[in-house]
Amino acid sequence: xxxxxxxxxxxxxxxxxxxxxxxxxxxxxxxxxxxxxxxxxxxxxxxxxxxxxxxxxxxxxxxxxxxxxxxxxxxxxxxxxxxxxxxxxxxxxxxxxxxxxxxxxxxxxxxxxxxxxxxxxxxxxxxxxxxxxxxxxxxxxxxxxxxxxxxxxxxxxxxxxxxxxxxxxxxxxxxxxxxxxxxxxxxxxxxxxxxxxxxxxxxxxxxxxxxxxxxxxxxxxxxxxxxxxxxxxxxxxxxxxxxxxxxxxxxxxxxxxxxxxxxxxxxxxxxxxxxxxxxxxxxxxxxxxxxxxxxxxxxxxxxxxxxxxxxxxxxxxxxxxxxxxxxxxxxxxxxxxxxxxxxxxxxxxxxxxxxxxxxxxxxxxxxxxxxxxxxxxxxxxxxxxxxxxxxxxxxxxxxxxxxxxxxxxxxxxxxxxxxxxxxxxxxxxxxxxxxxxxxxxxxxxxxxxxxxxxxxxxxxxxxxxxxxxxxxx
Length: 473
Ligand SMILES: [Zn+2]
What we know:
Blueprint: E1 4-15, H1 54-66, E2 70-71, E3 77-81, E4 91-95, E5 101-108, E6 115-126, E7 130-134, E8 146-150, E9 157-163, H2 170-187, E10 199-209, E11 219-222, H3 227-246, E12 254-259, E13 264-270, E14 280-281, H4 292-300, H5 306-317, H6 321-327, H7 331-341, H8 347-361, H9 370-378, H10 385-394, H11 403-406, H12 414-427, H13 429-436, H14 443-454, H15 460-472
Parallel strand pairs: 11-12
Antiparallel strand pairs: 1-9, 1-10, 2-5, 3-4, 3-14, 5-6, 6-9, 7-8, 10-11, 12-13
The structure holds zinc ion (ZN).
């Protein structure tokens, strides 16, 4: 049986969170009463003229830098012509053969090394309005009684990122998107939330036999609204294509929707040829010619990006890849980690506490006083477990001080614990007999009883010693 290789490229749309829209002064942003954030420009009244949003241009350049792109000295807005009710002008202002950012690469670290995904381009365009299909079971146009259009979203700045077909598995595609999302969020240019549609991704999927050069026919996979659905959708499509080729049929170029329930893909519309949008330069806008000192300044403003930070955490703190990745799941958690670990607290211990007990509390790491939390983590072996857990849960409080918890000491005095241990052993003769008969796992049961009686304040080391002594007597 031939061995198949996956060939996956992604197209990602990111809605920028600028205060105003791409070509007019209307407020941008999610939600709001439908059709209240509109004006003659974004509703396409005759004679209304677009003016580009400078912030959107700067943020796109910043993103281009983060993607290692070349920033064009000359970029052109084009009209992409198509008719649809969400598009009142009859065209979308986009970029075509002269995009703002091009020829980049994005490094995705993984346990077994880096993978590099080529970036063809990142360009700036305006979003379409939102259509809401009412009355159908699926929320799609098929079966709907009628459709409403909300123009609030129409004209919001959108960056489209196109990757090269460098991705080789569904899992890799998911990881790429997660890291790209985090990078975008940390640049502060978008909330990039798939549930809200401020991050959307389509996948171009094909397969070829290992060793084959060139590409076979690809399909375009749409309508996936979470990272997991994207991975599952790609997997479903890869399976379908391999099956098609192996049964002697041919894969045809088409657009597909992924259906979560049935875990299958269904055709949306067949493309005999690529859509012809009759692109032509937007006559109402002059080309973009970003000044070189601006381009350089924006490069200088880039923060350390999450992918690089994962590798630095591994090296600087001696963490495993897994730990470094989890801690870098948000910039705030990573910053809290560094604050505590740089304070001289054992790097691995801090990592364990933050990834497990701390994360379980749901406290926002951005609100935590790291120096105070560090003192509690450093003293975790000498304070009662219960006080330690309470400290973590309360660490986001502005009044949080380590002394509150460090004052609570463990009961480690043998003479104080001994009568209690005796009482517990006397109260459980059956378990004592079973332990002595070889069921040594029951030690944990006795330790648990002591902890329960002391409210978790007994020093577990001393309790264990006492129990072993008495049970072996
Ligand atoms: Zn407007």
